[in-house]
Design brief:
This protein has 2 domains: 11-261, no CATH class; 367-425, no CATH class. Helix content is 23%, strand content 37%. By secondary structure, the chain is α/β, with parallel strands linked by helices. The protein has helices at 11-22, 30-42, 57-60, 73-84, 129-137, 367-375, 380-396, 402-424, and strands at 92-97, 100-101, 113-116, 142-146, 155-160, 167-177, 182-190, 196-206, 211-218, 224-233, 238-245, 250-259, 265-274, 279-288, 294-303, 308-317, 325-334, 340-349, 355-363. It is globular, with a radius of gyration of 21 Å. Strand 1 and strand 2 form a beta hairpin.
């Protein structure tokens, strides 16, 4: 009998195991211990894992940064100072500092919204190893539950990173929308620097007839950002989600969505802005498990310098999910001969009465359009920025809230302005 090959653990994997054993309460929790066993069985994902083919995390994560300590008074004070300078994007603000919910920095939840700790064993999950790692090492986090029929004002959730030097932060957020309720949540990631590593997990559960608008924005500069969203939609439930990637050396946003109820609808969109040697990966898996579901995916990337963009989108229509309507599109503009974009849209259809399609385009700015603008007096950098803003704005237009869309446009314009100044210097 031939023994199974032994796969050597990397320094990062060994460090993560030690951190789990030393993390207060983690090993004693059966749910967290089970999650870490799932991670250990798979290890850090490599290119051999299809969904991680373009982002080899086992190579990229050479060493696991030490876990950030729970926020003390000094950390809370530092977060308070940072938040005071951060314009609000919603009337209600909830704050997590280094993955820990801090009531002292948060507003009271509006009528119809209850806050609690997420269950140790989430009702919805995925077999992705990085999601399992986040569930194993994250502190308690926060769960926001919107009561059936409620329509609270929009809520902003700030993930605030505080600390100097190499630090790793794990966070857990659960959003539950009751039957026939309607809500909007904005997640913002701020404060992280180049030596930081962040692992965020968000579960979204929308009950029958409920509706959720969700935006997530990476506004800081972490060395590593892995964000996992797990979504379940009941009958007639709806989710409109947008992801803005404006920073980070290596950022991966992954969404695992299941439409389990008849007539469920999901709209996923996003914009990635990449320069330098950044690497940004958006990976989606949308499973239609019930009839008459609808899914739309629309993502755009602007990739400059030696940056690398990744879009992987897979739509699975299971047997019996008849009358499914799905459409997926990925578009990218490359601004340098050294820029790279990997696009891989996929359909797996096991029903025979569906309408599904996908497409991907990768190209450069139209030289005739650039010439037209420059012939009318615009300098080359301004002409390019105008065309890029129009390209990105079409993605942002998927955000229904006008004020929130304008805030995202401002973030995009700031990125374009910084890039323009860099080209002129």
């Amino acid at each position: 009998m031939t023994a199974a090959p032994v796969i050597a653990r990397t320094a990062a994997e060994l460090g993560l195991a030690e951190q789990f054993r030393a993390s207060p309460g983690a090993a004693a929790s059966p749910a967290r211990a089970a999650a870490f066993r799932r991670f250990e069985a798979a290890g850090l994902p490599t290119r051999r894992v299809e969904s991680w083919h373009y982002t080899d995390l086992r190579v990229a994560l050479a060493k696991a940064a030490p876990l950030a300590a729970p926020p003390d008074e000094a950390a809370i004070a530092a977060a308070k100072d940072r938040l005071a300078k951060l314009p609000r994007l919603a009337p209600v603000r909830l704050v997590l500092v280094n993955g820990v919910f801090v009531a002292a920095l948060s507003d009271r939840p509006p009528v119809g919204v209850a806050l609690a700790q997420p269950p140790a064993s989430p009702a919805i999950s995925s077999d992705d190893p990085m999601l399992a790692l986040a569930l194993a090492l994250a502190p308690a986090g926060v769960a926001a539950t919107v009561a059936p029929g409620a329509k609270p004002p929009p809520i902003e959730i700030i993930h605030c990173f505080v600390g100097e030097g190499p630090r790793a932060v794990y966070s857990r957020l659960a959003i539950e929308i009751g039957a026939d309720a309607s809500a909007a949540f904005v997640e913002r990631f701020v404060g992280a620097g180049a030596e930081s590593q962040r692992h965020a997990s968000t579960s979204i559960d929308v009950a029958a007839g409920g509706a959720l608008a969700h935006v997530a924005a990476i506004e800081d500069e972490p060395g590593l950002h892995v964000e996992s969203e797990v979504v379940r939609l009941a009958e007639r439930a709806a989710l409109d989600a947008f992801g803005f990637v404006g920073g980070g050396a290596l950022a991966r946003r992954q969404i695992f969505a299941r439409l389990v109820g008849e007539g469920a609808r999901i709209g996923l969109a996003g914009l990635g802005l990449l320069d330098g040697r950044r690497h940004a990966d958006t990976t989606l898996e949308v499973v239609h498990a019930a009839p008459r579901g609808e899914s739309r995916e629309f993502y755009r990337h602007i990739v400059a310098d030696e940056a690398t963009g990744v879009f992987q989108g897979k739509v699975i229509v299971q047997p019996g999910a008849q009358k499914t309507d799905g459409a997926m599109k990925s578009q990218a503009i490359l601004l340098s001969p050294d820029a790279t974009m990997n696009a891989k849209p996929e359909l797996e259809i096991f029903a025979d009465d569906v309408v599904c399609g996908h497409g991907a385009t990768i190209g450069a700015l139209d030289p005739e359009q650039l010439f037209y603008l420059q012939a009318r007096g615009l300098p080359p950098a301004e002409a390019e920025a105008m065309l890029l803003e129009a390209f990105g704005a079409e993605a942002i237009s998927r955000v229904a809230d006008a004020e929130l869309a304008e805030a995202l446009l401002t973030l995009m314009r700031d990125w374009l302005a910084r890039r323009g100044r860099g080209r002129r210097s």
